[in-house]
Amino acid sequence: MKWALFLGAVLLSACSEPVQRAPSCGDCEDAMAEIADSEAMPDALGPEDAGVSDADVDAASDAASDAASDAEPFEASTPDAGFDDAQGQDHGTGDAQSSPDIGFADASASDSGRTHRQSMSVCWTDPACGRAIVVSHGGDWGGSVPYNSRPAFEAAVVCGADGIETDVRVTLDGVPVLAHSSPIEIYESLGCTGDRIEEMTAAEVSQCHLVPSRTESFQRLDEVLEWARGRIIVELEVKETRDLARTIEVVFEHGAEDGVYFLVGIDELTAAAAIPGWDRLWYLARIRSLADITNMVTNRNPRVFMLEIDREISGEANQQQVSDLLRDVVHPAGLKALSSSNKPPSIPTVRNHTDVFEQGFDVVLSYSCENGVEAARALNAARGYP
Q: Domain 50-179+224-383 class?
């Protein structure tokens, strides 16, 4: 529904008045068809359609469990360099200093007074922290607010999200900017559709307006890092492996290593390890198969604090089997787990977010900030977190 409303605003913007290289009103039906094709996703498997038996998953679980039991205990540590005192406000954390009267310590606030919205060392990288965490995908966007825009990020802070997810690409002159696609898609910028970020300078990219806005443009990463300091944690998905080194360099230039983490493929961890300072950053590893889980547990990387896992692993594990793996393998290895609220046929309702958390996931990548925060607050209240 959110995408439908947003794409409707895109077409309204395209047809209401001329925009450089935007489709004409006569092309709107074709544009909508193109967008629909680009957003099409296969139906998700149901539990009864996962394609494997419980015995198959149990075997994989046993192998990974054996590896986990042999691994050294994981201790979350604060990165060597972190933020100065937080400059932003604490939005909606409540009494972050109080400890819940339950069986695990409250990781809402560190000894320095920072909250989990200000420091990766608080809750995110602490396996004992049971707080339900919400990361807002592209910020809290929709309607007239563009995806990956500053207003969307500001709205996510007001909404109460714990983190924001965004995409990074590097321009021709070496400046990391927030952009999902290259070439730029029609749903990102009508005036720059088809242009390639890596072939443009930062100044040129800054002239591309984000739809449906006529004022907001692609953001520079350095500006977002400064804005986010003390306000919210930032998940960075660097779209091209070749851009990792420059992006990491900018993170260090702005002293933001305690306020960000990187989503990476397992193969990208090798590339990251060759970059100076990589071991002072945190990583979310993308999981595609049961073998990937076994790999991450067996070859434990202390800077990988969380795994991104679909609620169902296509052809290998249904939701119950994934839940069992989280309980029996992933969490005992000192790892957290993240999943999305928007995998088909799911709709990101409050109930959907609650289901993701109750399946055993620690963090939800939310496509509806308000619904995600409502679900997380209810669960955190029940768990004793403010």
A: alpha beta
